[in-house]
Amino acid sequence: MLIRPIERLGLAVHTTAREYVEAVGLATRMFFVMLGLSPGLLRRPRLLIEQMHFIGNYSMLIITLSGLFVGMVLGLQGYYTLNKYGAEESLGLLVALGLTRELGPVITALLFAGRAGTSLTAEIGLMKAGEQLSAMEMMAVNPIQRVLAPRFWAGVVSVPVLASIFSAVGVFGGYIVGVKLIGVDEGAFWSQMQNGVDVWKDVFNGFVKSVVFGVAITFISLYQGYEAQPTPEDVAGATTRTVVVSSLMIWWLDFMLTALMFSK
Amino acid sequence: MQRKSVDLWVGLFVVAGVAALMFLALKAGNMSTLSFAKTYEITAKFDNIGSLKPQAAVKASGVVVGRVSRIVFDDKSYKASVTLDMEEAYKFPKDSSAKILTSGLLGEQYIGIEAGGEETNLKAGDRIARTQSAAVLEDLINQFIYSKAAEGKDSN
């Protein structure tokens, strides 16, 4: 009598685990197929440029505004805390380190997943539902090469560019609040920042982080779109999964990369 | 026409990104401290280096004249052996001394060099003979306690 539910539980666990492992295998294969087909892009850079315009330029407004406000909030909160210890001169350092190391790459990646990642998933999911991808295959055009690869590389290039803009605008936001509104000494603000921020350790590592995030988010978005069932329900579900999986992946990768890069 | 405007906007996007990165490298992080000047290596042995780290500055009269390149423990003399990359442009007499100093109250540690009076200069591979270790807070507290105890004994 008791055996039945246990058996059913075992079967459920077994099937789910198997599905996940299969999905990982499929994603890995798709990733390498896409990388293998990518050199073809060099002959048609137009495809990449168009996607960069679609993914990068259209995300710039939200990234710039968010960067400005995050920098301003950091400036304000940082000032309240540092002021207790009479160390408000270090405000520039706090804002710059916070942005270049962590907030710049991470918030950019999260916003990018929400703004560009979902649109990629929806676009490809709808192409699949409209049987455009199958039509391409019928015409001997490989959809992975023609549709996925340009979008992937456009995302990989755009995320670090956006993260750099985010951090730079954020530093400017911190400057406006700290120096112009509150009245921290301008010389100390910049000199403390320059003294403490290391170009290779902080700026470059932050850049590397954003490249990794770019690879992860763009690929997750494309995979979800490409593997979605061609029904309106599942295309909608795939965009949700893009945001959920990308966000979790960003936090996990961020933890791993921080542990690797900044631990002594 | 349509194509031209897409090119222009993508170009602007990339230029903005590169400009932001340059701003972070040059204005936020001081790229200009990254020096490609020729250097010569000298070593110095310290009883205790405190929390000195590779890449720490070597300063003379407050001016950066080199960087710490390597720190190893020498198991013959039981001391920390610190290798310094000194900039070629700056020469110091052979009897110069090296101290481990702290910038600010709780700041990073760096090496301060005080020039000696000898006529020959330090060259690659030389060792600074006179060194002064980092001030370790526990040692200072111990000294203070002992001196207070000694004072107490004298007054009795």
Can you describe this structure?
The complex is a heterodimer of chains A (264) and B (156). Helices cover 86% and strands 0% of the residues of chain A. Chain A is mainly alpha-helical and 264 residues long. The termini of chain A are far apart. In chain B, strands 7-1-4-3-2-6-5-8 form an 8-stranded mixed sheet, with no helix packed on it. The chains are: A mainly alpha (264), B alpha/beta (156). The A-B interface holds A 46, 49-50, 52-53, 56-57, 60, 96, 100, 158, 160-162, 164-165, 167-169, 171, 190, 193-195, 197-199, 202-203, 207 and B 3, 6-7, 9-10, 12-14, 16-21, 23-25, 27-31, 33-34.
Rg of chain B, Å, rounded:
24 Å
Q: What is the approximate shape of chain B?
A: elongated
How confident overall, as mean pLDDT of chain B?
Answer: 84
The proportion of residues in beta strands of chain B is: 25-35%
User: Which secondary-structure class do the elements of chain A indicate?
Assistant: mainly alpha
What gap, in angstroms, lies between the N and C termini of chain B?
A: 99 Å
Major sheet characteristics of chain B: 8 strands, mixed
List SSEs of chain A in N-to-C order.
HHHHHHHHH
Poorly predicted spans of chain B:
none
What's the rounded overall pLDDT mean of chain A? Answer: 92
Uncertain runs of chain A are: none
